Amino acid sequence: MKLIKLAVISALFLSLLVTAISLLFPSNVIVSRAIEVKATPEKIAFYTADLNQWNAWMSDWKQNQVRLQNDTAFIGTQIIHFESKTDSSVNYQWVATGQAPYFVKIEWFPLEKGNYVIHWTFEQHVRWYPWEKFQTLLNEKLLGTKMEMELQNLQGVITQQ
Question: Does residue 16 fall inside a structural domain?
């Protein structure tokens, strides 16, 4: 009986400790990457604001079957929904199964005539649950690396034509 009591108290203490540690992590996580490109804002908008054009630069779209329906793309276990567009930015909601949704923004800023910086951000709001907080630790490493690769692809497509 003492052994069962010790196990229950230890499990309770360990879960409280893990929860307390996870509370030190932020609930808002932002991963962003940027790249410089020689292009017109119209050309940048053409490839970033139209989900039909993403297959030209998104590697996952080339490897998997993508189903487009209105302003939404379905790719594997992910759903990307177009939210809004301005002259210099586009917003999406990106939902991956089992994760809190990402608010995605791609914006472009002029550096000088014909030279722009494309800035891509993924913002995620998570609840206080320890598994959600610990999952965000992987965002910077995994998502950031993928974003860098896709921005390189985008730069190649934009400057190629």
Answer: no
